[in-house]
Amino acid sequence: MIALHVIAAILFLGPATVANSQFHVRAYDAHNGNTQAAGSAKTLFKISQSYGMLSLIVPLLGIAIMLLDWSFYKSEGQFHAAIALSVITWALLLFVIFPRQKKMMGALGLLESDEQAAKSYEIANWDKAKSQLSMFGGIWSLLWVIIAILMFI
């Protein structure tokens, strides 16, 4: 079960972290007229969304591991802290990063036609939007590094 937990972290958090760290750069370039960047932004958006959702498996496996050997893990505070941080990290992804990425995609006109038509997407200050998404993506990545350190203490 621990091996599955580690493999899931590598397979799902790695690509999601890379996609989150690069998406805003490519979306910004696409906004500035780079058509190749628009394709990259669309791909990174899909990777971020799909692997980000699959990354939920990582904390769920962690909770399952704790429950299987509760007598050992109940007194190990670092694991409790890691699970609490992973819930916060995943919430950051769902409620902050994903909506901002979607807003950028909509402003670029790169969403699927039904999503694009459902709402008007506008970004008044692209520099600010890029900086904020960079900051939240960096926080998301840093939290996963802290969680990984807590797992090995």
Q: Which key phrases capture this entry?
A:
153 residues, single chain, mainly alpha, transmembrane, transmembrane helix, 0% strand, 86% helix, membrane, 7 helices, DUF2269 domain-containing protein
Structure overview:
The protein is an all-alpha fold. It has one domain. 86% of the residues lie in helices and 0% in strands. The longest helix has 32 residues, at 77-108. The protein starts with a helix and ends with a helix. 24% of the residues are buried. The model has no long low-confidence stretch (mean pLDDT 93). This is DUF2269 domain-containing protein. Keywords: Membrane, Transmembrane, Transmembrane helix. The chain crosses the membrane at residues 51-72, 79-98, 133-152.
The separation of the N and C termini measures 19 Å
- Count of discrete structural domains: 1
Q: Write down the overall mean pLDDT.
A: 93
**Unreliable runs:** none
Helical content band: over 70%
% residues in beta strands: under 5%
Q: Helix/strand-derived class? A: mainly alpha
- Give the helix tally: 7
Element-level helix/strand string: HHHHHHH
Number of strands: 0
- Principal-axis shape: elongated
Radius of gyration from CA coordinates: 17 Å
Largest sheet features: none
